[in-house]
């Protein structure tokens, strides 16, 4: 049962996952599109504000409602803190961030919901150290959704606990999902009006940066995924996360 | 009124065929101060965790535990959380939130108190513990002692009727540890809270304890006042005697006047005076030579001067441009094959000196020579290959792999040796440190002493000629300390130079060749160990403080026992 | 410099103020309102951060403003007033230039408001606000805020320990450095996970997970907070009415169209200025009060 989310029974989990999936995969993009087309001129900031609500609310509500146990909170907090603090282990290599890799591992090991929470928390709290700004919701959303998708794909058997599978997913998700969303974010934040040209320009200018980020993620997953997943398995046994299923 | 009644309690961990606790009978009255001691792995932590069932690990328990007259299973989580306080060993791990005030309120929030009541309780506790000055701080700004005090205060805010502490002072320096014990005494005396704690360092805690429980191999072997428990150990000739405070050990070693076996240094002095009455007092062979002798000749075996391997020449260091000097005008020499101990208070710059020796930080004035070569001009490779190695204070900082064996091989991963050569090296170290039974275990499943041994093994694979140790005895029980000393002596005998910084005076007095006192960024005095402690009047071993009015040269327990025995 | 007085108000007042200013800052396009917002944000940021704010504004905000103002007309060719044609044949319009200036102004204003937000809304205030509605998540945030400095410290210690066995992370080529960084991260992860078990015990031991958990804070909503909150709400109400009545509408495309200035719109401007300057006014009033008290004694 170790693929399942922390401790809850199976059926309720899948319903919750479905609800979250609909919210994240349908409602949020719909809001973004609606915002872009309905609120003309330059009301794109609202979209980012709405996203923080849409991403946080369903997860937060579901999470709060089921009264998580101390050990669940601890696991999420520790992983998010490692993702944030992990950057300082690579102070000598700028732009080399382990966040996405850790979020993916969290999603695979503890499930889609935990993956999302680790990602969003890491994105949010890191900005307590680097400064909150209009970019905060975008980062939270991107990190969170990568963890979420990793969890879902793993549950559906499309993502394996193997290096190759994780690396491919990690590279693509960093490049496409993270890069895609963050660049969309800066396109709406940094350029006052939406046009395909300006979006393309932002994507082009961000490409190399995203590529480095993707390579870093692949590198991290290649080296740390196996020991990290082993460590988490060991912790699951030690915390009794499996036994008390 | 009895707060706890344990009847025939046994406990077995899953997948283990041996009981960790066997047939424990124990009654604890309300308001008692109880100290439990025993070597690592004797089951005392497991016993403590039986007393709060929400923290009890998985396993099979037999017998009954009654809390306040009722079986403990009937006490629900709310009652247990509110009435049974539990302080963990590592102060850092107990703290959950990021602000002091929030941490103080944490338990009360769980219990569902309203803001007004929490405000009052938190204010009371902050005043009682003297926390008000750092009430608004972030937890990360606190010292280790403050953190442990915060753990204690946040539990006391819930006004528990019993307080259980699992080696609460093992990670603290002696001053902070003494303060902590004093606070416990105050809680016990002024609030009447029952206290049950486990402890290795008994000198401070025994004078305030009502009962001392000694455990061995999962069973209680003595349970009485500290004095009578000591007598019981003496009658059994039990090895746990070696963990008792020095005055007790001396009395037991002399095998006289056991009826009044002393617990404190004060009692020890009185006992010694009584003992010496009517006996011809043996005057120690005052080797005036050794007193006047230079440090150089103090190496075991004496004789001629060895070549210096570590030399500090007027070294100055500070951590930042504007920061105060951490090390000031420091000059000293360590000779080849010496066991050199640096003692002194917290924040005096001892650890910085170790970092300077290891080239981890650079002085802004002065020179440091290793083997006669300026360290600033050596590459890391040159310095750390077959020359110098540091055992970090926390051995966990070295573990990378999931078994001890893999971790040892990891150490050699960068070297060009063949697999057979590596295996041979690992084998040598494993034999030297008797690691065989631990090889397949996960490093984090080992006890503190075992972890340290595994870390030492990793470091020794570098085959250093100079070994630097930072507080190696921190948190270890007496047996692990002796074992560590044994290995260090063996290394010493092979010609490895050892330099150690420590708070542990007793350990340095017993095993060091030369001791140096660090104060305010520099070495104040340095001498051969015996002469060093005989020359101090306050900063010295308990045995010396007990006997120095008669024999100034009696530094270790063994010294004093030998002198007593000769005086008949 | 005296500590900012507005920061000492109840978190809900702080948060409400910034939420309103950010919202208005993003929504309102009338040039007068934009200039007022920029002015207020600048003043408050300088009050809060002193010389650092001046440096931040000059060094980052001014160039950002220029770049953004120039970027828009290059990509955006809407608008009817064509000034000239670019080399690639696209028209340069007055509307898009002005729009660029306006958008840049807004963006810079938002960023400066955020710099004030970061100084005033410290993590514990946020966690307090959040803790009321989402106790578990706010506890996670609090724990992460506790763990991150602790982990950074561990990383430092671990890298020292690694160096003292000859593994220097500051030397060697990229690959070696990355490998050593990973070793450190790996050691730190194990350490963090294993030690966190005890933290979970500590939480359980203090009753975490019991029903009816409350959330304690040091903050109290007193009469001072009521007064300021009331003022804020009144000003916000005027703003909302003004916006709803279309008194300060602004349109850029296809052609610029701005509502006429009327006495009511001037009231709206005044309300916005008052709202934006509220923290500064509070600060000045309290400083004067303090001065008069200390001069009496």
What CATH calls the topology of the largest domain in chain B is Rossmann fold
Q: Enumerate the spans of chain B where pLDDT stays under 50 for 5 or more consecutive residues.
A: 288-302
The biggest sheet of chain A amounts to:
none
Give, in order, the helices and strands of chain A.
HHHHHHHH
Which strand-content bin applies to the residues of chain A? under 5%
What's the total helix number of chain B?
A: 21
Poorly predicted runs of chain A are 1-12
pLDDT averaged over residues of chain A: 78
CATH architecture of the largest domain in chain B: 3-Layer(aba) Sandwich
Number of domains of chain A: 1
Question: Structural class of the secondary structure composition of chain A?
Answer: mainly alpha
Largest sheet of chain B: 6 strands, mixed
Keywords (chain A): Membrane, Transmembrane, Transmembrane helix
Pfam families (chain A): ECF_trnsprt (PF12822)
GO molecular function (chain A): transmembrane transporter activity
Transmembrane segments (chain A): 18-39, 44-61, 73-93, 100-125, 137-154, 166-190, 202-224
Structural account:
- The complex is a heterotrimer of chains A (245), B (568) and C (297).
- With 245 residues, chain A is an all-alpha fold.
- Chain A has one domain: Orthogonal Bundle (Arp2/3 complex 21 kDa subunit ARPC3), CATH 1.10.1760.20.
- Chain A is built from eight helices and no strands.
- In chain A, α2 (44-65) packs across α6, α3 packs antiparallel against α4 and α7 (163-190) crosses α8 (196-239).
- Chain A is globular, with a radius of gyration of 18 Å.
- With 568 residues, chain B is α/β, with parallel strands linked by helices.
- Helix content of chain B is 36%, strand content 22%.
- Chain B contains 21 helices and 20 strands.
- In chain B, strands 6-7-8-3-9-10 form a six-stranded mixed beta sheet, with helices on both faces.
- Chain C is mainly α and 297 residues long.
- Chain C folds into two domains: 8-121 and 220-296, no CATH class; 147-205, no CATH class.
- Chain C has helices spanning 11-27, 31-49, 51-75, 94-120, 123-133, 135-163, 174-205, 223-244, 263-296; strands at residues 82-85, 91-93, 250-251, 257-258.
- In chain C, the strands form two sheets. Chain C has a two-stranded antiparallel sheet with strand order 1-2. A two-stranded antiparallel sheet of chain C has the order 3-4.
- In chain C, β1 and β2 form a beta hairpin.
- Chain C is extended and about 70 Å long.
- The relative contact order of chain C is 0.15.
- The interface between A and C is large, with 63 and 69 residues.
- Chain A: InterPro entries: ECF_trnsprt_substrate-spec.
- Chain A: Keywords: Membrane, Transmembrane, Transmembrane helix.
